[in-house]
């Protein structure tokens, strides 16, 4: 279900973000419009994405999603509406890739977290999902790829 996790060092990356806090069951209704708003605002500022869009989940709560819809960018963005500048910081993370439909991500995260725990690794609360290939890349969800990352603590 997931690729063998690995430990990697990230590099600092400028981002454009929209902070979102919604009930878990509202995630599907806010994600699409949020991505559209984010990409339109970045494009209107003449800034190019520097990679695939992602989400940065700031707080783990079974009922509430507190996260940022994000895209890496080639230059700093100016605050406009809900869009603001952000940064993916330098840090050591444990990372894996899940391939399959979004509906399978919960089980994939469970598998990933179990692997992390079995290795005795300590992670922070935040986590990231990079949508490497999704519906925009093809209709077959079995080919979609999502990268999962969790910050490692010393």
UniProtKB/TrEMBL annotation:
It holds the Pfam family GyrI-like. Residues 3-153 form the AraC effector-binding domain. It comes from the Bacteria. This is AraC family transcriptional regulator. It comes from Corallococcus sicarius. The lineage of its organism: Bacteria, Pseudomonadati, Myxococcota, Myxococcia, Myxococcales.
């Amino acid at each position: 279900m997931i690729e063998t996790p690995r430990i990697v060092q990230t590099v600092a990356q400028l981002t454009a973000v929209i902070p979102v806090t919604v009930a878990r069951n509202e995630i599907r209704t806010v994600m699409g419009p949020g991505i559209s708003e984010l990409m339109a605002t970045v494009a209107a500022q003449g800034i190019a994405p520097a990679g695939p869009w992602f989400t940065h989940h700031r707080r783990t709560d079974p009922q509430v999603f507190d996260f940022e819809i994000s895209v890496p960018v080639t230059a700093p963005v100016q605050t406009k509406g809900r869009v603001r500048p952000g940064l993916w910081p330098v840090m050591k993370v444990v990372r894996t890739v899940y391939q399959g439909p979004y509906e399978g991500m919960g089980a994939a995260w469970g598998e990933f977290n179990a692997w992390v725990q079995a290795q005795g690794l300590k992670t922070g609360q935040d986590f990231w999902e990079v949508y490497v290939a999704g519906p925009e890349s093809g209709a077959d969800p079995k080919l979609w790829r999502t990268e999962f990352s969790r910050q490692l603590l010393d």
